[in-house]
């Protein structure tokens, strides 16, 4: 744009200079005839002078019109240049304002970077906390499973212990009943033996008094039944067996 404006101004200057040169070169210079006489025809000389002035005026008018057009072009270029300068000036002012706010922007940027770093560290801590929480949850689940298994084992042991206690009580009752029955049978056998021995003694005594001798008696073998087997009073072995069986 500056180059075109310079060319327009240069062309206007060249046109004005050329017009002035033509005017200066076309002006009549008074001359005197060599012999000192006047011109032959004054009428013809005035017409030539008038024609020359008319031609120069027409040339100047044409050049003035061209200069006016060129001046208008220059004015348009100047207006465009003014607008462009104002636009660039406003842009420079805006850029200056932005540059003035640049320290604040940089400070905010540094603050944002610091905040991002803090948030990153917090996220890392949260991630570690989540890992610990997950491990704690897994450990809690395992402990719950272990407690559940212990409770089931305890219930099973208690159930078995209850059954063993019932069996122990039942066997103890049966043992006591058998002991009582055996004791009763021993008492009956003892009583029967005493009665038998007493009868035999009385009979032997009677025979001795009558004959003075005691006869030998054949002792019949006594068949022992399972019910007649004497049960020992010492039940420590049975109690020890029942205690060992009742333990889980």
Automatic annotation (TrEMBL):
Any one Gene Ontology cellular component term annotated for this protein: cytoplasm
Similarity annotation: Belongs to the dysbindin family.
Alphabetized PANTHER family for the sequence: DYSBINDIN DOMAIN-CONTAINING PROTEIN 1, DYSTROBREVIN BINDING PROTEIN 1 DYSBINDIN
Protein name: Dysbindin domain-containing protein 1
Source organism of the structure: Hyalella azteca
């Amino acid at each position: 744009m500056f180059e075109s404006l310079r060319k327009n101004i240069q062309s206007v200057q060249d046109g004005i200079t050329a017009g002035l040169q033509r005017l200066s070169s076309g002006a009549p210079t008074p001359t005197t005839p060599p012999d000192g006489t006047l011109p032959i025809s004054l009428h013809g000389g005035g017409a030539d002078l008038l024609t020359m002035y008319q031609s120069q005026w027409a040339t100047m008018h044409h050049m003035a019109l061209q200069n006016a057009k060129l001046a208008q072009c220059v004015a348009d270029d100047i207006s465009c240049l003014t607008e462009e300068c104002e636009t660039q000036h406003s842009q420079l002012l805006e850029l200056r304002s932005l540059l003035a706010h640049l320290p604040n922007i940089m400070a905010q940027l540094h603050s944002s970077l610091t905040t991002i770093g803090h948030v990153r560290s917090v996220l890392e801590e949260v991630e570690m906390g989540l890992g610990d929480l997950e491990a704690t949850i897994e450990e809690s689940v395992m402990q719950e499973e272990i407690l559940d298994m212990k409770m089931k084992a305890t219930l099973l042991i208690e159930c078995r212990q209850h059954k063993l206690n019932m069996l122990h009580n039942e066997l103890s009752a049966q043992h006591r009943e058998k002991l009582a029955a055996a004791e009763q049978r021993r008492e009956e056998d003892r009583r029967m033996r005493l009665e038998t021995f007493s009868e035999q003694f009385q009979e032997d005594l009677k025979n001795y008094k009558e004959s003075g001798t005691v006869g030998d008696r054949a002792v019949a073998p006594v068949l022992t039944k399972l019910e007649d087997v004497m049960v020992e009073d010492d039940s420590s072995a049975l109690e020890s067996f029942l205690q060992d069986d009742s333990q889980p």
